[in-house]
Specification:
The structure is a single chain. The chain is α+β, with helices and mostly antiparallel strands and 112 residues long. It has helices spanning 2-15, 44-60, 91-97, 99-106, and strands spanning 19-25, 35-41, 67-69, 76-80, 84-90. The chain has one domain (2-106): Beta Polymerase, domain 2, CATH 3.30.460.10. Helix 1 packs antiparallel against helix 2.
Length: 112
């Protein structure tokens, strides 16, 4: 189910025209999730639309979104699916937070 959900999430962010999509497999080092998905959105409203679509599609699959942090006014939306954590950033916010570098340096994980 986890792989199916991950593929569904990747499809949604691709279909919704997110950019620079990164998927990190953190199963060997994270006690809280198996995968981290990071994507860039053009603006906060697009981020909210993507988050809503992810939630809808995951629930259709029989899954559940545990929590969403952020909305159409924020440059960063975090979606907690349980096994998969999704971060939707505006380009400026993604550069400022630099989560990709943190994941690759601290946990020595490469994109998949």
């Amino acid at each position: 189910m986890e792989e199916l959900t991950l593929n569904l999430i990747k499809k949604v962010v691709e279909d919704k025209k997110c950019e620079d999509i990164a998927v990190y497999d953190v199963r060997t080092s994270s006690p809280i999730c198996s995968y981290i998905v990071i994507a860039t959105v053009n603006n906060a409203r697009q981020g909210k639309a993507v988050a809503d679509q992810i939630e809808e599609e995951v629930e259709k699959l029989g899954g559940h979104i545990h929590h969403v942090e952020g909305d159409e006014r924020t440059p960063w939306i975090l979606i907690d699916e349980g096994d998969i954590i999704i971060h939707l950033f505006t380009e400026q916010e993604r550069q400022r937070i630099n989560l990709d570098e943190l994941i690759t340096q601290v946990n020595n994980h490469a994109r998949i």
